[in-house]
Amino acid sequence: MFDQVAARYDITNVAMTFGNDALWRAATTRAVAPQPGERILDLAAGTASSSASLARSGAEVVAADFSPGMLAEGRRRHGGLRNLSFVQADATDLPFADGEFDAVTMSYGLRNVERPKKALAELFRVTKPGGRLVINEFSTPPDRRFRGLYRFYNDRVLPRVARVIGSNGEAYDYLNESIRHWPDQKTLAAWIRDAGWTDVRYRNLTFGIVALHHAVKPSDGQGASAEDASA
């Protein structure tokens, strides 16, 4: 499914989000705070737009995705960045060593993983002690009235936009369903904490349509005990 939508994936995202995808990507890059010399994993990288944004900081970035079609499109668009590499990978069985990355991030991909808690544990495994996690994912708007408007858009408007601009309308029907059934911010924060991460917190973007979750791998390698917080 993702192979089929790769060619028009980015332009469809721009249309469906009214351009907010660029703002969300910039917020994610700032949250990761990549530094020159760091090694960063961008999991579920898709066409590598987020990976390229991170790589422009000078950090060494690995764009990993389960879809070879997405990776091929990413190489076509961003393969000229020398500090950006591409790896096909299963989020629940990452082909990387323990403690290999200074930071790990995942945008709009965790809800597509069959076992998201396993993916969070794998991200924990490949992160260095003291390293950081940033998850950018669709979420639940906390305001009831706005949430109703958002559901109407997802149910009635988004499928039509996807069919006009995208290459596979059924794929975007799946997108709507995956968002509808995805847990809210506090539940995801609890999953992250259960995977061993500490200092778990989240920040809503665009009224909670998406949320940025931040966390840190304990320097001593012990599991998390701190409460999650929102800001």
From TrEMBL:
InterPro entries: SAM-dependent_MTases_sf (IPR029063), UbiE/COQ5_MeTrFase (IPR004033). S-adenosyl-L-methionine binds at residues 47, 65, 90-91, 107. GO terms for biological process: menaquinone biosynthetic process; methylation. It holds the Pfam family Ubie_methyltran. GO terms for molecular function: demethylmenaquinone methyltransferase activity. It catalyses: a 2-demethylmenaquinol + S-adenosyl-L-methionine = a menaquinol + S-adenosyl-L-homocysteine + H(+). Keywords: Menaquinone biosynthesis, Methyltransferase, S-adenosyl-L-methionine, Transferase. Methyltransferase required for the conversion of demethylmenaquinol (DMKH2) to menaquinol (MKH2). NCBIfam families: MenG_MenH_UbiE (TIGR01934). Belongs to the class I-like SAM-binding methyltransferase superfamily. MenG/UbiE family. This is Demethylmenaquinone methyltransferase. It comes from Microbacterium oryzae. The gene is menG.
